[in-house]
Amino acid sequence: MDYHVKDIKLAPQGELNIAWAKSQMGALVKVQERFFKEKPLKGIVIGMALHVTKETAVLVETLQAGGAEVAITGCNPLSTQDDVAAALAKNGVKVYGWKGENTEEYYANLEAIVGHLRKGLAGGKRIATIDDGCDLVTLIHQKHADLIPQLVVGTEETTTGVIRLRAMEKDGALKCTVIAVNDNQTKHLFDNYYGTGQSTIDGILRATSILLAGKRVVVAGYGHCGRGVAKCARGMGALVTVTEVDEVKALQARMDGFESMPMKECAPIGDVFVTVTGDKHVITTEIMKLMKNGAIMCNSGHFDIEIDTAGLYKMAKKRVKVRPFMEQFELDNGKKIALLAEGRLVNLAAAEGHPSEVMSLSFCGQALAVEYGVKHKGNLPAAVISLPTDVDHDIAALQMTAMGLTKDNLTSDQIAYLSSWQEGT
Ligand SMILES: NC(=O)c1ccc[n+]([C@@H]2O[C@H](COP(=O)([O-])OP(=O)(O)OC[C@H]3O[C@@H](n4cnc5c(N)ncnc54)[C@H](O)[C@@H]3O)[C@@H](O)[C@H]2O)c1
Fold first, then answer.
1. Taking burial as the number of CB atoms within 10 A of a residue's CB, which of 171, 227, 315, 390 is the most buried?
2. What is the distance in A from the centroid of ligand 1 to the CA of 91?
3. Where are the beta strands (DSSP E) in 32-120?
4. Residue 220 CB less than 6 A away from ligand 1
5. CA geometry: angle at 312 spanning 310 and 317, to 5°?
């Protein structure tokens, strides 16, 4: 079978959800319409490891409209939307993924995608990858290096994936071109900020059903995502405290009106802790022991290593699953603390990920990055590269049109002034 999903009978609900998402993704639909006419991806097989959500399904449709064949798996064991996966399978997409995969199944699904890339090559096609977190490109480099010379381009969606790729490049290990879609302004200034902000709060509320107003929410990391989470939590009436390791960001948080202090000082006073750093062990078991009874921890960074869950599981004397995405742990000191979504991306595990409109911007970036890679095949370095800024501006313009917005344009007089130096006081 060319797919492996939880239950193919969920397809009708998946189709309804995909159609609803598409109705919010006007910018991506414009790219889709152009792709349908121009077929810039004809002859390409794309292997994708991306959260299998209703928005990703619209990206898949767009790539297919451009002439590509697509095989997709998830990029996190808890983020696949089973109804969407079923709808994709029913419509002929090679999809491997279900919510709640174990690590072995997760890697078997990645291997299935590699299998489709091989099949495509055998059939005379060219191949490309789309990653979110860099697991597919890493697997290809580690176990299927013979595919690398055939790889037209890879693209990467998220900050953590770009960090891994830049580390590979620095080590001399990266052997293909990867376009860092996360570098697009139309990606990180919108998806990471507004998307992660809103959907992380959504995940916390769906998992716990708590009132946020009046709670002290501790946000670890004040990057693009953390700023969004802090802003949304404040919008719900929470008292927000930020922890940072970067002086500039710590200062910026303070001047944005948030408290800014080390995690150790937050530990005894926080009600809800959200990690969103891309870093490891931001909340250790030592920090957990200092937390107050009833504290809630969750993560919205890409991997489940920001909270030391293994240490927590070992240290806890009792573990109770209270709700689908909430477990409570009793510690030796008698306190009970909760962990949401096993420390995995709370917004995708306990909610539905980012709102469709914001993913429209990110996925215009993905579709145009693959097109760019195909168009410039042979002329791009084996390195992590960014899309030219005019592509970014084209995406913003598409989104403005979709939202019915217009803007001012520079006059010729202003263009001349802005590129001159003679005129002063
Ligand atoms: N949940 C989602 O849907 C979603 C969406 C986009 C990105 N992400 C992921 O979120 C993470 C953050 O992404 P970003 O774009 O905000 O990155 P960023 O680089 O803009 O920000 C990360 C911040 O964390 C800080 N930091 C690092 N280690 C820390 C520590 N030990 N304690 C406190 N702060 C620390 C850094 O100084 C930096 O300011 C990444 O893993 C990214 O892949 C998740």
1. 227
2. 36
3. 44-49, 69-73, 94-96
4. yes
5. 125
Ligand 1 centroid distance, CA of 276 (Å): 5
Strand partners, 321: 327
Mean pLDDT of 103-124: 97
Taking 90 as the threshold, does the pLDDT of residue 336 lie above it?
A: yes
The CATH number of the structural domain formed by 191-344 is: 3.40.50.720
**Does the C-beta of 301 come closer than 6 Å to ligand 1?**
yes
End-to-end Cα distance, the chain? 73
**Closest approach atom of ligand 1 to CA 279:** 28
Q: 8-183+355-402, which class in CATH?
A: alpha beta
Q: How far is the CA of 244 from the centre of ligand 1 (A)?
A: 10
Q: In what order do the strands lie in the sheet with 44-49?
A: 94-96, 69-73, 44-49, 126-131, 151-156, 178-180, 384-385
**What pLDDT band is residue 279 in, cutting at 50, 70 and 90?**
very high
Q: Which residues pair with 155 in a beta bridge?
A: 130, 179
Does the Cβ of 198 fall within 6 Å of ligand 1? no
Closest ligand 1 atom, residue 277 Cα: 24
* Element counts in the chain: helices (H) and strands (E): 18, 15
Which residues make Cβ contacts (< 8 Å) with residue 342, sequence separation at least 6? 78, 304, 309, 327, 349
Q: What percent of the chain has pLDDT over 90?
A: 99
343: alpha, beta or left? (left if phi > 0; alpha if psi -120 to 50): left
Q: Parse the chain into domains and list their residue ranges.
A: 8-183+355-402, 191-344
- Report the separation in Å between the CA atom of 229 and the middle of ligand 1, taken as the mean of its atom positions: 11
